[in-house]
Predict the structure.
Amino acid sequence: MHLLLVILFFLEAQFCVQSSDSNSPAGENLATNGLPFPWSKVRLPSYIVPVHYHLLIHPNLTTLRFNGSVKIEIDVKNNTNWVVLHSKNLKIFTATVLDEHEAHLSDKVLSVLEYPSHEQIAIFSPKILTSGEKYFLYLEFGAPLSDGFYGFYKSTYKTKAGETRVLASTHFEPTSARMALPCFDEPIFKANYTVRIRRGPSHIALSNMPLEQTVEIGNGLFEDQFEVSVRMSSYLLAFIVCDFRSVSGMTATGINITIYAVPEKWHQTHYALEAALRLLEFYEQYFNILYPLPKLDLIAIPDFQAGAMENWGLTTYRETSLLYDPDISSASDKLWVTMVIGHELAHQWFGNLVTMEWWNDIWLNEGFARYMEFVSLEAVYPELKVEDHFLDTCFGAIGRDSLNSSRPISSLAENPAQIEEMFDTVSYDKGACILHMLRNFLTNEGFQSGIIRYLHRFKYSNARNEDLWDSLIKHIDLKKMMYTWTLQKGIPLITVKRQGRKLYIGQELSPIYVRFIHFTVHNTSLSNPDVLTLDEEVDWVKLNSDMNGYYIVHYDEEGWNALTELLRINHTALSFKDRASLIHNAFQLVTAGRLSLNRALDLIGYLKSETHNVPLLQGLGYLQSFYKMIEKRNIADITHNLKTYILQYFRDVIDKQSWSDDGMVSDRRLREEVLSLACDFDYPPCLEKAKHLYNSWVESNGAISLPTDVSETVYMVGAQDDSGWAYLLEKYGVSMCETEKSKFLSALISITYFIHLLLQLGMDGTLIKTQNLPSLIYLVAKNPVGHFLAWDFVKKHWDELVEKFPLGSFGIRNIIVGTVTQFSSTEELREVENFFKSITEQVSELRVIQVATENVEKNIMWLSRNLETMRTWLQQRLN
Ligand SMILES: [Zn+2]
């Protein structure tokens, strides 16, 4: 699955899981009918194993209900009378057990016990089910199509003519297959699936496998029968009934790839087809295993909570993660679409072919898929310069991992809310950074051949953390080394002291296996340090070359002085990654109270001559985030001085930018950021140019194309007067491009006066879709006067929000972190804590609350330590 996370300011925060055991002793649990429920654990018994599901499903897009039946071939491992499986919010009409000849074991209708708090049902068979015999479980069931984003849910879209159309789609990961059919909903229970779907004549049905045949069954209905699936976990099953249009192509190895979208967005599907074809071919070669299904569909669903989902053979996407309009989408949009496709396609092997045994190791899926985004794009789309973004991934992980509320990569997670919270920055981003470090250690070839070994060894089955380490390399106890990274939380801190030719290397916080420490002394790579004697006297030493290792380095005073001086006189002596990582390490150490702010600010003093977008945006990003925090505290003199300083200091960079789509992706990304900042800071030439472009765009009634990378900035400036704002809202209502709409929305939010109205529209869900509400709330909270409004809104509508975005989901976590992290005073912290105390019953198991409040504590600490330093430093620079 691909996360959609809000981007937070410099103290990045994410979410985590709290361990608790919700099992209770046997015999205490009562089913809904008052009888004892025969199973007391959250996880299913292992003595009944599903082998093959035969599923028939019929969604009615008018009544918005679905009915279904499932015949599950089961393998009985121990004699028993009970079959326990998952079911959530389903009405079970009938349940029977059949023998291997499909004869009923009993003439009676079997009673079904329900235990909703564990989302389980139990079926009693009067005749003992004997170990080693074959049986079938047959159930009929029904439910309304779900209203949210999980299970078998309803999605809608509007045509240009204003007609609302309905479709039905699934999203099961991690624990929602049980909302669409009774099943053994745990990743270890891999089975084959044969799916049949009933639909009306104007719709199509899709599932994991290709269509085998269609049968007309009367009453104007058709039944689509799909080929038998490969063995897979229940969370990967998918089916959709819709009226979409598609475009198809075939890979060199004969895999049919199809991109689906709502009919009027068909012209936005072509880039995704090209990307999917190229990336699938890449993975087949890289993993040395052919993609095992005959087809792969990629479909953009109008209502979708995550970024995308890797259902085997039928991957689902948010529209912004799949659709690309060459006239409207920006360079960043293109990169995003390509990365998300790279992610979901990597999952077809990592996750689908080899699956983690349990959700505690979800990083085996997500860390890998996140890392493969970079590996695949670097190989297939070198011009997109995806490597520019990898450091950001690790910086994000470090921000989260430096909090006490962090967790080890492999952590306990039992119940659905805890499992949901495992889909976080630790699993995705820290996972990817650890793998990157390992790849550098093993070499590219060593890493790739180890991965191939791992995939071959565990294909169509499940694996654990240690299975990966055991497969990667022989002769070295990799497990012992890697456990220091995956079983303990936190970011390691390496300290360096230099005395003459001797380097003393120390470790703090999370002790790690030191073979991963590489460093650069005049470009010579060394490893295995502790105390090291250099061959000759050197001017400077930089550890963690290219930030290939997941740790932060703190130098002694002389060390920092030497590196600051090096950047000043000859910054290209270090790679751009080294420059960006120095900036990051320095400001991270400032936050931790280990380095003075002066030093970090002096270190970035060289940025005037920096030409690479990564270090430049890294340094600028810190200054901007300080500005945003101080602005919210209404500290007028520093806000004013910092803005003046940034505009003066980076003036050359700003003035150099063109208002066009020319240049390489990295130039375009820099342009997008820099011009957005300049206009946000009211830099007159920027405002003038943006206003001019906005007026021409309005005069042409949207017919002329704005440069795509700067269009958001143009809208932002255009929205500043009432008529401009109203025009954008009107355009928002009719646009057929989601990336364009998200740019309109950012612009609309920048006007404080209308924030209430927009929040209401987001809550209502008609004009602004509910899927966009979390990012809408976050955008409001980022606004200098919007953070109180956003927080009040969250408090007031808490119950409704939790109904839309269940506890533990991305949506609710983004809302909590996005609003709370804007605060930076003790009064605000108390206010936030009091609110969460008042709903403690609901949120006590959510680690995200701790993450959010810990970030506020960090903000408070940062201001108390650094505000005066910042004030004086700015006064000196501006005088
Ligand atoms: Zn994923």
